Amino acid sequence: MSNLKTPERSQVPKSDKWDIEKLYATEEAWQQDLDTIPSLIERVVEMRKAMEQPETLTEQQFLEALKRLEEAQKRCEKVGHYASLMKSSDGSDTANTERMGKFMLVAVDFNSKTSWFTPLLLKIPEDKLRGWIEKKEFADYKVFIEKELFLKAFVLSEKEEKIISLFGEALGTPSEAFSVLENVSFDYGTIETKEGVKQLTNSSYSQFLLDPDRAIREKAYKQYYGKFNQYKDTIAALYAGSVKADVAYAKVRGFKSARYSSLYHDKVDESVYDNLIDTIHKNFAPLHKFYRLLKKSLKLDTLRHYDVYVPLVPNVKKVTPYTEAVDLIYEAVKPLGQEYQNTLKDGLLHGWVDRYENVGKRSGAFSSGGFEGYPYILMNYKEDVIRDVFTLIHEGGHSMHSWYSSRNNPYFTYGYSIFEAEVASTFNEELLFRHLIKNSDDKQLKAYLLSTRVSDILATLYRQTMFAEFEKISHQALESGTPLTTDFLRTEYGKLLQSYFGPEMNFEDVSNLECLRIPHFYSAFYVYKYSTGISASLALAKRVIEGGEKEREDYFTFLKSGGSRYPIEALKVAGVDMSKPEPVQAACDHFASLVDQLEKALDDIK
Length: 606
Prior knowledge:
The chain is mainly alpha-helical. The protein has 25 helices and 7 strands.
C-alpha cells in the first residue's frame, strides 16, 4: 500500500482490513444483539430474590443465575468488542462514535443493575458453595467462584459496594484532568528545524528527542519541561489526589496498604515487587555501561538527559512488505511448532489484522481478543520501518495467547491477567530478534538490531522498575503521613534519576519534573508488570529454544491457562518462578550480554 497519501477508510481494500464480519455480518445483526441486552439483564435481575435468601437458595437456582449472568456478559462483550473495533478503525466516522455511545449506555445499565451479584454470592454459606462447585454442572464456574471467595474478606455490603461504584467515575478525575492538560490545554510552542518550523506537542516530543541535532533536542526538552514547570504545583496536586484515592480505596476495603490491595487481586506477594527493585539495584552496572557507551558513541563531553533516546545506529533502510513480514514471523516462531506457526500465519494473512493507516484510524497498534470472533490486531504497518515487523510479531503474541485461552477455558475464566499479558508478546519479540541476528551477515543491520533490542529491554526492564519504585515511595509516604508536595515528589524522583542513570548523566534543573508527566502513574502499581513480564518472557524463550518437547509443552500450558490460574502459578507451570529473584537476575544478565555485544558491533561498523 502506498504511504504517500493516507486513504479514506472506504478506499482500503477488504484484504487489508480485519474480518469484523466474524463478529457480526451486518449492522442490523449487531443492533439486534444490542437490543436484546436489556432483556438479558432483566433475566439476571429475576434471580436476585432467590439469591437474597442464601439459606434457602437451591443448587439449581444458583446455577441458573450463573448461566443467565454468563449469557448477558457474553452478549455485552461481543457487542462492545465490535463497537470498539469499528471506532478504532475510523474514529472520524460519526456512525462509529454513535455506535460506541449506544453500547456504553447499555454497559453502564448492565453494571448498575447487576452490581448486587457478587455481594449476594458471597453471602451464600461457604461450605454450601464449595460443595456445589465440586459437581460437574459447575465446572465452567468453579474457578470464577473460587476467585470470588479469595476476595471475600475485602468485599463490602451491597450498599457499600454500590456507593464505591458510584464514586468510580469521579475518582478518575485526576487522570482525566492530567490528560486534558498535557494533550489539549498545554501549548508547547514550536521548534525550528532544517525542514522548517514544527509544532511541539505531547505526541511529537519523543520524536524531537530522536533528532541527531543536539540543539534541537535541547530546545525541545527545555521547552517541553518548561510548560510542566509552569504548572508543576497543579499537576503535583492532581497526582497527590490520585494517590489519596488509592490509599482511601484500600482503607475502605480493609487492605493494609494501597500496594497490597493492588497486588492481592492477582495473588501476587509484595516480595515479588520488592525482589524486582532489589535485583535491578544490584544490576545497575550494565545499565551505566550502556550510558557510557552512548556518551562515547555520540562523541559527547557531557551526557544530558535529552541525549539518551538518540539511536546509536541510524535506522537501517530495509523494505519488508507485509506478506514478507508474515513469512519472516513464520520462520521466527518455528521453535513453537507447526500448529502455532500455521495458526499465526493464517490469522495474520486472513482476517485478524487491520494492516495499514487510514484517515481516522487510531494510531499505534494493539491486540484485542474476545471470547468470540478473532483475536484482532490493529496495525499502522509501514514496510520501510523494521520496528513494525517487531510490532506485528508482538501483537501476534498477544493474539495467539488470546486464541489459546479462549479455546481452552469457559467464558468466566478465559481472560488472562495483565501480569501475564506481556509475556507472550515479548517472548515473540525475542524469537524474532534471535532469528534476525542469526541469519544476517550485514554488520550494520546487526548493530542496529542490537541497539534497538538493548533500548527496548532497558525501557521495559529498568525504566519501568524505576517508575514502580517511585510509586512505592509516593504511596508509602502518604500512608505514613508525609504530604505529597511538589518538592517532595521532585526530590524523591531526582534521587531515582541519579541512581538509575548513573554518574555519566548530567541533569537539568527541570529533569525531576519527569515524575509529573508519566500517565501510568494514575493507574498505580501497574508498570511493574512490564518488568516482570519481560523477565519471564526472556527466561521462557531461552528455556524453549534450548529445551525440547517438554519445555515447549510447558509454555503452551501457560498459553492455554487463560484465567484458570493465578499469574504466578501459571508462569510456574511454564517453567519460571516469578516469586523468586532469579528470573529478573537472568534478564539483567541477558541485558549485560547484549550491551557487550553492542559495544563490539559498534566497533565493527566504525
